[in-house]
Design brief:
homotrimer, 207 residues, alpha/beta, UDP N-Acetylglucosamine Acyltransferase, domain 1, 3 helices
């Protein structure tokens, strides 16, 4: 009975694959991305030419975010900015020609500055903040209710390639021409022209 | 031609952004979450007041799961319970005021007990079981067909903060007021008032 | 007011849970998977009996991919093949009875060969390529524009179990009956009958 269902719907799918070619689905996806970009772009502090944001991306407080030209945000990327510091506006600045993979998360209360030509894999986290400082009386409270604090901004140079599932934590300067291996956690500065990997990320090659 | 399409749909999006304001989309998402919660809540062993489950969460065997008050499950979190142990019901118990990030996965055949005020990042795995024991003749079989076994339950205290992409493996007791760094894998017990990180997670600060 | 909404839609959800039982939603999901499989299967180099691909999987250049029998690809898995090497066709070959978890990503420009009975967790990356070699003048260019290169294919034996969030990098042979712990990064060969974990993955048990 189940096999009959399988065969029936499998063959229905085969027929659909002739009626609805893949190129058509790609055109529709592009159109959705263009439209979705238009929905969101006017709320940004600035939004460069030919930058696009795929369907399902989420942005909080885009008025603090500046995006250059020719950037691509793939599906389900989130950029969340929260203005919590008194006398200090948070800001996210993204250069030109950056390419963010699926399901990245940028979270900012202080400052995230990204240069040109960044390439990221999937599930990358870039955060300049954490839930509370590490003190005995803070740890006794609910993490969600701890005040967001920032040890410092995140600064990323040009031509940086960040692998899948990397987490970049607050107060980090990443130089130009850096490669960060998959699954790494970046907690310290990385100089120019380096390959780094691990938890915490260590330099495994410097050119 | 492609640029014409881009400009056309980009501006269509701009117009839509006036017709369909973001606050409306947030109201609709809340309504979907309330409804989705109502769809699932009655199947749980218990479901506390003001706990909510976003659209796309998945639950297997909710009759073994008890959820306290004021908990939040963000999108696409999965809780899968499988009763495989003879003479022993699995159970998942979640306290109050916990906040699960997107795409968490709790998988239970034995016992998962979570206290109050848990905060988790995205892509967190909490598992009390694995596919088979590590014996020569077991390894010769297909992992999917190996019997699920549990070395012990997972117990998580109060005020715990679990970073993005953390995996918590079976037979682990995590104390109160613990912080677990992003991308860590927890395989050993963690005492109260600690910060841990790494694979396997080690204590990097104790207060 | 918000509480009134919550109560209203929560109870609407309860009513819906009687009208639309879970088993019905599971039947519909199965039907969608059969249909989606049928849409894609005819484009593959070969597609075995009873292999299925859930809604939302993405495939690039399926004509280079051979899939055996009884394989399961869960939601949002992507297989991307790119023919960039002159005089050399890329190929992905998957045996029988493999079970890929949600949101896996296989990316191939050279060769990925997977045996029988593979089981993977969620967010697993299997890649035989990278963006450019590690040379000073290459690092000065945009990562996205660097030519894709492969140090060697990825070969995975039979009865292998790969944990959540594992990344498997190019030029790696993984033996039979191997277990790879959650969050690991595999950069070296793994012999038969091993348990490995860490970044980079090291043997923690050999039988």
């Amino acid at each position: 009975m189940i096999n009959l269902f399988k065969i029936l719907f499998f063959n229905l799918g085969r027929i659909l694959s002739f009626l609805y070619p893949k190129t058509l689905s790609q055109v529709i996806e592009s159109i959705l991305a263009y439209t979705y970009t238009g929905v969101h772009a006017r709320f940004f502090n600035s939004w460069g030419s030919y930058s696009s944001m795929a369907w399902g991306c989420r942005v909080t407080n885009p008025q603090y975010i500046s995006v250059g030209n020719n950037n691509v945000f793939l599906r389900n990327t989130a950029i969340t900015v929260t203005p919590v510091q008194p006398d200090h506006s948070p800001s996210v600045t993204i250069g030109n020609n950056c390419h963010f993979g699926i399901r990245n998360h940028l979270t900012c209360i202080n400052r995230i500055v990204i240069g040109d030509n960044l390439l990221t894999g999937a599930y990358v986290l870039i955060s300049d903040n954490s839930h509370g400082t590490i003190e005995r009386e803070i740890l006794d409270t609910a993490p969600f209710d701890r005040p967001l604090v920032s040890k410092g901004g995140v600064y990323i140079g040009n031509n940086v390639w960040i692998g899948d599932k990397v987490s970049i934590l607050p107060n980090v300067h990443i130089g130009n021409n850096v490669i960060i291996g998959a699954n790494s956690v970046v907690t310290n500065d990385i100089p120019d022209n380096c390959v780094t990997a691990g938890i915490p990320a260590k330099i495994i090659k410097q050119l």
